[in-house]
Amino acid sequence: MPEEAEIYTSKVLALHWFNTVKDDIDLDLQQIQVDTTETEQKTAHCDSLSRQGHVHLLETGSLIVHRLSLAQQCIYPPL
């Protein structure tokens, strides 16, 4: 599988980057962005980035969920 080699290579590059910069820069999480589904895009506010199909900042009051319909949970913040 070519995907296995790509995933392994990505892992090695990410670890190399992390080990190189971890002492020099602030690695605190700054923001979370989300790419909504087509259904969520259709129900979003007409002026929103989501409605236009763009990735957008996940707000703290967001009700966007993940997982299958039987076990859905908010992405952020946790309930």
List its traits:
single chain; 79 residues; alpha+beta; two-stranded antiparallel sheet; 33% helix; extended
Could you describe the 3D structure shown?
The chain has one domain. The protein contains two helices and four strands; from the N terminus they run H-E-H-E-E-E. It has 79 residues and is of the alpha+beta class. The longest helix is centred in the N-terminal third of the chain and has 20 residues, at 2-21. 33% of the residues lie in helices and 10% in strands. Strand 3 and strand 4 form a beta hairpin. The strands form two sheets. A two-stranded antiparallel ribbon has the order 1-2. A two-stranded antiparallel ribbon has the order 3-4. The protein has helices at 2-21, 38-43; strands at 33-34, 56-57, 65-66, 73-74.
